[in-house]
């Protein structure tokens, strides 16, 4: 059974007398939440993610809860004695998939990230961008309960970056908790349930509200359902805003990278929702001074 992951008064330092990288950290990661970790370079963000992924053990305090976890490290080892497909199949079996199921999942995810053409290329021959796609796929193919992403978008091309955002939306909508670090402040802007900043070895929760119009392209989706029906629970948490036009009819402002996830959720709901229209959000026009 999936449970919350909790860090209680956790500290981490390297060496018996080394300086504390983190100390007194409290954090709860419930299922289905999206959490962003911010902070300047060198403050301990990667250390925190390694603790969450249980790659490192705390020097003090406790980490409780054991969701099935997948991790994309900041630096992914590339000189491995496998082809891309062989490595992913092996990782899939480690995560409990049968070998045929692991191979099938690996090929499907490689195709989604535009990497199917080098499935049988030795890992040591892959470019940095191609290696990063393999790093991301290995974390997604076994359907983890907790997904930990340390600069996972770095090195990906634009299509792959958008695909990873879609995958994050799918995973959180399906109940997976996702914790991520990214250098781009607009990454998944407006989507996280919480943002924490690592500062002075501690962890501070950002209290300011998320922007009402997060950066990045959006689409407007108008949907209609039964008069008394509520939107599927996964939809409001994935979209930027919801406006009820009439009973049963809603106007959704959806990040473009999440639009296919939202539409699929609506169309496969029981009862299903009717999609009235889908259109590109019009950018706000700058106000001009009236002529004298």
UniProtKB/TrEMBL annotation:
Tree of life domain: Bacteria
Annotated keywords: ATP-binding, Nucleotide-binding, Transport
Short name of one Pfam family: ABC_tran
Molecular-function annotations in GO: ATP binding; ATP hydrolysis activity
Domain spans labelled ABC transporter: 5-225
Organism classification: Bacteria, Bacillati, Actinomycetota, Actinomycetes, Kitasatosporales
InterPro entries documented for this protein: AAA+_ATPase, ABC_transporter-like_ATP-bd, ABC_Transporter_VariousFunc, P-loop_NTPase
SMART domains attached to this UniProt entry: AAA
Protein name listed in UniProt: ABC transporter
